């Protein structure tokens, strides 16, 4: 393993391919000091003696397994002893002086509880979200924050309120995806120091008060009605233009007027209950004069 030196146990009982952890001066402490103090060396030496004296029973308590989705961190006498973290496999630990901390590096999903947010234009909304996080620095997540998962969840709640309170309702509704990406970037600025990366942020639901919903619905209905009236007026204007053009064309051609009259009579005659009274066109013309 990189940055770690394999050591052979005093009884030479470590199977081939099994990982061992550097001891004594080979470990890397949190403050950069490679050498344990005198008292620490005494405890380490006593731990080795205990393993030798209690062999083979000690073999049941000195080996630990790190699973594929985990990373292991050894604290020796309270100090960081392994950097980088232990990868999956079987590892040797000294009893009484070594403590193995396991960090799960799988993607974690949690839901931000629904909370009320007052937008910039003073509209109360209820927002909840889904967040996907992953531990990418196990040592930082263990040493820099006491409860990393709870800290990330609380940070998400406060960040949502802070960002959405500076936005208007229309902006939130129309730029929902962009707002989620911005929140993800803001969260990563803080969680990176905790060894956690926010892989995805999604709004689960944005609920408006009933009064606001009714107002938006009324506004939408009014907009649609106004648009319908405008389209209807434009259609009537176009129809009137075409009728005027047709009337002018018929007036310029007297024969066309007679053909139109005959066509009208034919259409009326097709109805069984219709009574057709034929009036000479000249008579109509004299009356109009």
TrEMBL record:
<feature type="transmembrane region" description="Helical">
    <location>
        <begin position="38"/>
        <end position="66"/>
    </location>
</feature>
<dbReference type="InterPro" id="IPR036013">
    <property type="entry name" value="Band_7/SPFH_dom_sf"/>
</dbReference>
<dbReference type="InterPro" id="IPR001107">
    <property type="entry name" value="Band_7"/>
</dbReference>
<dbReference type="InterPro" id="IPR043202">
    <property type="entry name" value="Band-7_stomatin-like"/>
</dbReference>
<feature type="domain" description="Band 7">
    <location>
        <begin position="61"/>
        <end position="220"/>
    </location>
</feature>
<protein>
    <submittedName>
        <fullName>PHB domain-containing protein</fullName>
    </submittedName>
</protein>
<keyword id="KW-0812">Transmembrane</keyword>
<keyword id="KW-1133">Transmembrane helix</keyword>
<dbReference type="InterPro" id="IPR001972">
    <property type="entry name" value="Stomatin_HflK_fam"/>
</dbReference>
<dbReference type="Pfam" id="PF01145">
    <property type="entry name" value="Band_7"/>
</dbReference>
<keyword id="KW-0472">Membrane</keyword>
<dbReference type="GO" id="GO:0009898">
    <property type="term" value="C:cytoplasmic side of plasma membrane"/>
</dbReference>
<comment type="similarity">
    <text>Belongs to the band 7/mec-2 family.</text>
</comment>
């Amino acid at each position: 393993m990189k940055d770690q030196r394999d050591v052979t146990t005093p009884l030479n009982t470590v199977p081939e391919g099994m990982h061992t952890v550097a001891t004594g001066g080979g470990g890397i402490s949190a403050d950069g000091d490679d050498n344990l103090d005198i008292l620490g060396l005494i405890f380490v030496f006593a731990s080795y003696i205990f393993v030798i004296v209690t062999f083979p029973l000690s073999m049941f308590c000195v080996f630990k397994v790190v699973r594929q989705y985990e990373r292991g961190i050894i604290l020796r006498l309270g100090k960081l002893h392994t950097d980088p973290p232990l990868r999956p496999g079987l590892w040797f630990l000294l009893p009484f002086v070594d403590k193995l901390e396991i960090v799960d590096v799988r993607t974690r999903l949690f839901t931000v509880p629904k909370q009320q947010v007052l937008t910039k234009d003073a509209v109360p909304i209820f927002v909840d979200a889904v967040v996907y996080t992953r531990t990418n620095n196990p040592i930082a997540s263990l040493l820099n924050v006491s409860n990393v998962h709870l800290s990330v969840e609380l940070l998400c709640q406060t960040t949502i309120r802070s960002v959405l309170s500076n936005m208007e309702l229309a902006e939130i509704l129309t730029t929902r995806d962009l707002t989620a990406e911005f929140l993800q970037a803001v969260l990563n600025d803080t969680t990176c120091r905790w060894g956690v990366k926010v892989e995805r942020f999604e709004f689960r639901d944005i609920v408006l008060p009933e009064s606001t919903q009714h107002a938006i619905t009324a506004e939408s209905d009014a907009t649609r009605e106004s648009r319908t009236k405008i389209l209807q007026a434009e259609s009537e204007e176009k129809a009137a233009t075409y009728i005027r053009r047709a009337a002018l064309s018929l007036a310029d051609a007297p024969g066309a007027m007679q053909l139109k009259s005959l066509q009208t009579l034919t259409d009326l005659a097709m109805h069984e209950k219709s009574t057709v009274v034929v009036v000479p066109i000249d008579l109509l013309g004299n009356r109009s004069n």
